[in-house]
Specification:
The complex is a heterodimer of chains A (166) and B (654). By secondary structure, chain A is mainly α. Chain A has 2 domains: 2-68, no CATH class; 84-160, no CATH class. Chain A is built from 10 helices and 1 strand. In chain A, α5 crosses α10 and α6 crosses α8. The radius of gyration of chain A is 17 Å and the shape is globular. The N and C termini of chain A lie far apart (40 Å). With 654 residues, chain B is α+β, with helices and mostly antiparallel strands. Chain B has a 12-stranded antiparallel β-barrel with strand order 10-11-12-13-14-15-17-18-19-20-21-22. Classes of the chains: A mainly alpha (166), B alpha+beta (654). The interface between A and B is large, with 75 and 84 residues. β1 of chain A pairs parallel with β5 (198-205) of chain B, so a sheet runs across the interface.
Chain lengths: 166, 654
């Protein structure tokens, strides 16, 4: 529980730093992100446990709202515009669902990723991700590594014609 | 970047975008008194649109008070209780010097440091339209942070999402509602791209991990509730995947002007907080309030009762004809698993089970490709239903390995899975559900008391014999139920039962999931055995055991091991004390006749250690006939000292 809280704090701090970087695109070319990335484990569930978790569901209470505050948000994991940064957020936030769709070669996350990356055809993207599944989604890989792998695959396969992630 | 502001003002004024080349020009101070006078003349401070933008409500003792509890929504120190003062402060603020946000990059910047035009874009748009503000004399400021939010949302549609009654935790069986602001992007292949839309949520910020304190603070408004925005996929993963809650999506017929006002007003709300009350001013209440501010013609909050149930907020949408332009359904992980296993043969189901338990001897190699795909796909869904949460939090390495192995097995087959099309459940969405308040009147006869007049009431929500449309067939959840009887002699009006909470969760045991069915009841009941002379006793009962629900929900049953505790001053309880514990079996049977009727039978037997009497029992049978807005109920009961029959007319109200 304590560890989870520290991860969250580290994430919030690092996201703040990352955002400062992101606002200076000239220096980086593209945004960098905190260690915990935009994965579900660190963002959605927070450190709710047991009774509180049940009560939290009752009252729709959240421990992580600060991260997504409308005017005060600290998270970089919110902007899902098409392009590399948005696709990265999407892949990390959907790591488990995307892995399943990739293994199946089709599904909603693949359709969405295809559009965000500006690729030509979701079927072809599904086939490519399925074919290279073991390299793209190796066991015990953090979400940030997966997003790098997938974006690299989409960029390198010219037949996919992914135009928005240059 | 004046484009967004110009568009918003244009939307608000229904005119073409005013010339904003004067961006750098200074506001004309002589213009302010003119605007203030014009606002007074038009009584704008009492306009419905203005009152809704500040969330002011009439107070019981006269005057106004805003529901917003944080200071962030007001520029005037009197703003919370004085819409006119706030209007004046707002117009004055629009003339403030400075250009938009302070120039620091920190996202933790205090919103109150921003220019009032940037803090209150919806007010600005409303007043610009109502007062025909001349942009040459009051130039709009640039607002980089609001404009970034505006671009991120890129709103083209708004959808209210209802996250279903949460079966595994009937404590949250009321569900949840939030908004999705759609970009309305569509893939080249035609599919919707809902996942990358923004979801806007109103939720309490909990600041304690003590469960008792938590419940208390939540009930009495000690938590702050705040609005937040995040990509919709976080919500889908959390609710549909990891909590297995079906999502109902109600597309709202708002035009581009109303959508713009909604986004601008949500930005305003993002600066403040509202005291969060579980029952009344909760997520559903505030979401409806935001929609009313975006389109003052809507009447939503007047259609919900004292308690704002999420399902009632869906019904409030339908009370505004034409507001809902489409309903869609997003199946949860458990619903998807059921769909994937529905067509499989017994042998295939065995293989699914073996695979999901890490046993590779399922004979996949011998199957034709499409069968192999179906089996492994179902096994993957089963693993996610069983271990999804552990996998995402990384707390179970064994589950991680199991899933990874299955994923690799699946990818090696090398053919894509066909799309899984799941129709919405026949019971329909929450808008089809009966009213949660139930009142009953009738008569009966008892062997002990003779003729009886019967009256009862229940605040919420649903029991196993109520009309099934719009509810889960597996859940009973009742709050504040009271039953009265009056015999035909003076002073014989009696409270038979007062229950605070009564919950039953039927979880069918099937080959894939062995979840326990359980029940819980807290309240008071009149003792129906020789323990005392029909005294009223405090009552707490819990029970759990195996249950079954037939595929179409027609027949259900549960056999439970129960424990209960009664307490009353006159009760001959444990070793002569007024407290009487009891244990024993409980049985529940239910038969549904479609939407028309239900038959529910219950039976309990109790061993009462060191008490008098030493055992007790109760048998009950209830038949209901549903006749549109009312139902007829016939019920009978047999207990050691109570043998009665009753016939009641039940009325349901929202």
């Amino acid at each position: 529980m304590r560890r989870a809280r520290w991860v969250l704090i580290a994430f919030i701090l690092s996201a703040g730093v990352a955002h400062a970087d992101a606002e200076n695109p000239a220096a980086h070319g593209k945004a960098t992100y905190g260690l915990a990335g935009c994965g579900l484990g660190s963002l959605v569930f927070g450190d709710q446990k047991g009774a509180i978790q049940i009560l939290a569901a009752t009252s729709n209470t959240t421990f992580g709202t600060q991260t997504f505050g409308i005017t005060t948000g600290t998270s970089n994991c919110v902007d899902t515009a098409a392009g590399s940064a948005g696709a990265k957020i999407f892949i990390e936030g959907n790591r488990e669902a995307l892995a399943k769709d990739a293994a199946r070669g089709s599904g909603e996350t693949i359709t969405t990723l295809t559009a965000m990356a500006g690729c030509k055809d979701a079927k072809a993207v599904g086939t490519a991700l399925q074919k290279h599944f073991t390299q793209l989604f190796p066991e015990q890989t953090p979400a940030e590594q997966v997003s790098q792998n997938v974006l690299k695959e989409l960029r390198s396969d010219s037949s996919l014609e992914c135009r928005k992630i240059g | 970047m004046p484009g967004v502001r110009a568009a918003l003002i244009a939307l608000a004024t229904c005119s073409t975008a005013p010339a904003l080349a004067t961006e750098v020009a200074r506001a004309d101070p002589a213009y302010l008194p003119e605007l203030l006078a014009s606002a007074k003349e038009k009584s704008l401070a009492e306009a419905r649109a203005w009152l809704r933008l500040g969330h002011w409500r009439k107070r019981v003792l006269g005057g106004w008070e805003s529901e917003a509890d944080g200071p962030g929504l007001f520029l005037s120190p009197q703003g919370k209780r004085d819409p006119a003062a706030e209007l004046e402060a707002t117009l004055t603020g629009f003339f403030a010097a400075g250009d938009g946000a302070p120039s620091d990059n920190s996202k933790l910047a205090d919103p109150s440091l921003e220019h009032p035009q940037c803090r209150f874009p919806a007010r600005f748009a409303f007043l610009a339209g109502a007062l025909q503000i001349d942009p040459a004399r009051l130039p709009p400021r640039s607002c980089p942070r609001f404009e970034a939010f505006w671009r991120r949302v890129s709103v083209r549609s708004a959808t209210l999402i209802f996250s279903s009654y949460y079966l595994n935790s009937p404590a949250s069986a009321f569900g949840h509602t939030f908004l999705r602001l759609g970009k309305d992007e569509v893939a080249s292949s035609g599919e919707r791209l809902d996942l990358i839309d923004q979801a806007v949520d109103f939720a309490a910020i909990a600041n304690t991990s003590n469960a008792v304190l938590y419940a208390f603070e939540g009930l009495f408004g000690f938590f702050r509730g705040e609005f937040s925005a995040r990509p919709y996929f976080y919500k889908v993963r959390e609710y549909a995947d990891y909590e297995s809650r079906d999502l109902w999506e109600y597309d709202l017929a708002l035009d581009q002007r109303q959508l713009g006002m909604l986004v601008a007003h949500l930005w305003e709300l993002g600066q403040t907080w509202f005291d969060y009350y579980y029952v009344t001013e909760n997520c559903s209440y505030q979401i409806l309030g935001a929609l009313e501010a975006a389109d003052p013609r809507l009447d939503l909050l007047s259609h919900v009762g004292v308690a704002t149930l999420p399902s009632d907020s869906v019904k409030a949408l339908f009370a505004n004809p034409g507001l809902v332009r489409g309903v869609r359904y997003r199946p949860s992980a458990r619903t998807q698993l059921a769909a994937r296993t529905a067509g499989l043969s017994g042998g295939d189901l065995d293989a699914v089970q073996q695979l999901a338990e890490g046993d590779d001897s399922a004979g996949l190699g011998a199957m034709p490709t499409d069968e192999r795909v179906r089996v492994v796909d179902a096994a993957l869904d089963l693993v996610d239903v069983r271990h999804g949460r552990d996998i995402v939090t990384g707390s179970d390495p064994r589950a991680d390995r199991l899933r990874q192995h299955l994923l690799e097995t699946r990818s090696a087959i090398g053919v894509p899975s066909p799309p899984l099309n799941i129709p919405p459940p026949a019971a329909g969405g929450p808008e089809r559900g009966h009213g949660s308040l139930r009142l009953g009147l009738g008569g009966g006869a008892s062997r002990e008391e003779g003729a009886l007049f019967l009256a009862e009431g229940r605040m919420a929500l649903h029991d196993l014999a109520d009309p099934p449309a719009g509810f889960s067939p597996r859940t009973q959840l009742e709050f504040f139920k009271v039953r009265l009887s009056a015999a035909d002699r003076p002073g014989a009006v009696r409270l038979e039962e007062a229950s605070l909470v009564e919950v039953t969760s039927l979880n069918p045991i099937d080959r894939f999931e062995q979840r326990v069915s359980w029940k819980m009841r807290v309240g008071a009941t009149r003792v129906a055995d020789a323990g005392c002379d029909r005294c009223l006793a405090g009552f707490l009962a819990v029970g759990g055991g195996p249950g079954m629900v037939s595929a179409d929900g027609t027949f259900s049953a549960a056999l439970t091991a129960d424990a209960e505790l009664l307490g009353a001053p006159d009760l001959h309880g444990l070793s002569g004390s007024p407290v009487r514990p009891g244990i024993g079996p409980g049985l529940l049977l239910r038969l549904l006749a479609g939407d028309r009727g239900a038959l529910v039978g219950t039976g309990t037997w109790r061993w009462l250690p060191s008490a008098s009497p030493e055992t007790t029992y109760e048998l009950g049978l209830e038949a209901r006939l549903h006749l549109g807005p009312v139902s007829l109920a016939a019920r009978g009961r047999a207990a050691p000292r109570a043998h009665d029959l009753g016939l009641l007319l039940l009325m349901y109200r929202d």
